[in-house]
Amino acid sequence: MTADSEALALERFMTARLDEAEAAAKAVLAIGEDDPRVGVHGQWNAYIEGGDDGWAIEDAAGNGGFIVGEHAFAAHIALNDPVTALRSIAADRRLLAELARCEGDPGWDSALMLAARCRATAWDTHPDYLDRWKP
Hints:
The chain is mainly alpha-helical. Helix content is 54%, strand content 10%. It folds into two domains: 1-34 and 81-129; 43-78, no CATH class. Strands 1-2-3 form a three-stranded antiparallel sheet, covered by helices on one side. Helix 1 runs antiparallel to helix 3 and helix 3 packs antiparallel against helix 4 (109-120). The radius of gyration is 19 Å and the shape is elongated.
């Protein structure tokens, strides 16, 4: 497989995973339009609600209402809110766009391909992930 087709295969794989993640994040934001418990106003926060086993999650505007028993779960959910997820997806899409733009440029092509391969390891358990993409 040529370097160009390898980059294209990795780009297609990553784009499909990013599309899936984007759809999931946007689905949560769409629920938030009708459900005040799901905030759509930026980064989420975890806070204690009624004792040590009552952690809740709210958005930056104070909308919330998800009760999560464990602080670790609440913190994880808050740190992976839909707005932050969409920003991360956009950053990965920029990386892929730069990879396509610099294709064939020996100064950038290999560095950007390495960066994309590193980012793709987030999905290394996906059945379509190819072991040869491991950095």
